[in-house]
Records
---
Amino acid sequence: MLTLTSSAVQVIRSVTEQPQLPPDTGIRIAPQDDGSSLGLSVTPGPEAGDQTVEAEGARVYLEPTAATVLENSTLDATFDEQGEVTFVVAEPER
């Protein structure tokens, strides 16, 4: 199962815990339209079949294909010099 770093938890919570958003709002990871990569978006809740990863109030919803691809990986978040967030997936060590 995907794990979240404390930095990822903080970033996800800052994005999803806005008063105007539904309580189950989270980040959803799913294949892009071209099928060659995964994309991340804010969503009001999981879609049918999604796997839910929750840590300290941060919710990540994984589309089934994404859940398989990210099995045993870790999601981290970093800030660049302009303050933009970048999510990074660390592959499991083999």
---
Amino acid sequence: MRKRTYRRHITSKWAKTKALLANPATARHVPDTRRLTRGSLHDMLRTYGMVYVKPNSGTYGIGVIRVEQHGAEGGHTYAYHAGTRIRSFATYDELYRSLSALTRKRKYLAQKGIHLLKYKGRRFDLRVMVQQSPARRWVTTGVIGRVAAPGKAVTNVHNGGKLKPVEALLGSHTGGQERERVVKGLRSLGLKVARQLHSRYRGIKEVGLDVAMDDRLFPWILEVNTCPDPFIFRKLKDKSIYRRIYRYAKAYGRL
């Protein structure tokens, strides 16, 4: 009898989103996410004012576009921010026509925009690393912050983002005890996400959550990577964090 094999790397953001939406414990942390169409984007802009458009498969924040609607029709009421380029439009049709030129060759998703907290005037989000231990238990092994480069809409390191300890980034937004509670909650959320995805995709051994914190310090899951970069954790002062991440990754054959 042929041995069944399972995929370790799930590339479709839509597939991972649907898996998280199937469990109320993880669904409450997922922003409204839909397949990108002319109608879905228009509806979401009217509802939320700001939407992120992202390729269904892809890494490093490549192709992610921030789209906004300002006020009513007339004047420059629509805009998008792609890379360091910002373009404005008087009508939705003009916006979507220009956006289609950037997205037409790939499948894209539209996601409710979360207004990220800022560190020294620059947006940041958080990466939560969760891995299977050698004993095959899910463990949150690290949390690190990513600060967007000046003029960029995304925080990814490969797009110029800078890595910072989560405690430093949250320092101006909350006090010591509250900060500890928030980080503990992030670690718990990471475990819930890993277990939920693993229930659908039995081959995965690691997940990296990209999490946005809103002004209420509520965590929103922007994306989940099933092949996250372990090396970013070398930047942390506490080297024991990276050593454990490396040891676990080596145990399940990633490194």
